[in-house]
Specification:
This protein is an alpha+beta fold. It has a single domain, classed as 2-Layer Sandwich (Alpha-Beta Plaits). About 40% of the residues lie in helices and about 20% in strands. It is globular and about 35 Å long.
Length: about 140
């Protein structure tokens, strides 16, 4: 079993897509080990996306990520990292496959509805960013 961090980004929370996204996650057989709604500060957003520091979209991405509440979840499944990225779809919502969350809810390059970790090391870092061991109760 593998764990990954999922975020429902401010754009998707704002359009009330939270419930539909959680439904798709559970229908696909992920266990939700932990979940919270929160709002990032700029300092925290910049730290979370540290890997993208210096890229042209870094500042806009952080501004967007602090623009409203987000929902953070720890998902568990076999090959959860890839399985969640498959369900999310491509980064650019215009290139995302039919039936993916980003295809259905994305609206701009940064406003692509959801986040998912991309490797075991980043998943461990990102999970501990949002949740303590004690909060993984699901
Ligand atoms: O989220 P994902 O791992 O698919 O993509 P990323 O390359 O790690 O980029 C992180 C986030 O930055 C994306 O989800 C987009 O919200 C945003 N982004 C952007 O605004 N413009 C780009 N050219 C690339 C990414
Ligand atoms: Mg990424």
């Amino acid at each position: 079993m593998q764990k990954t961090l999922a975020l429902i980004k401010p754009d998707a929370v704002a359009i009330n897509a939270t419930g539909e996204i959680i439904k798709r996650i559970q229908t696909k057989g992920f266990r939700i080990k932990a979940m919270k709604m929160t709002r990032l500060s700029l300092e925290i957003a910049e730290d979370f996306y540290d890997v993208h520091k210096g890229k042209p979209f870094y500042d806009d991405l952080n501004s967007f990520m602090i623009s409203g509440p987000i929902v953070a979840m720890v998902l568990e499944k076999e090959n959860a990292i890839k399985a969640w990225r498959d369900l999310m779809g491509a980064t650019n919502f215009k290139e995302a496959a039919e039936g993916t969350i980003r295809k259905d809810f994305g609206s701009a390059m940064e406003k692509n509805a959801v986040h998912g970790s991309d490797a075991p090391e980043t998943a461990a870092r990102e999970i501990s960013f949002f949740f303590s061991k004690m909060e993984l109760v699901g």
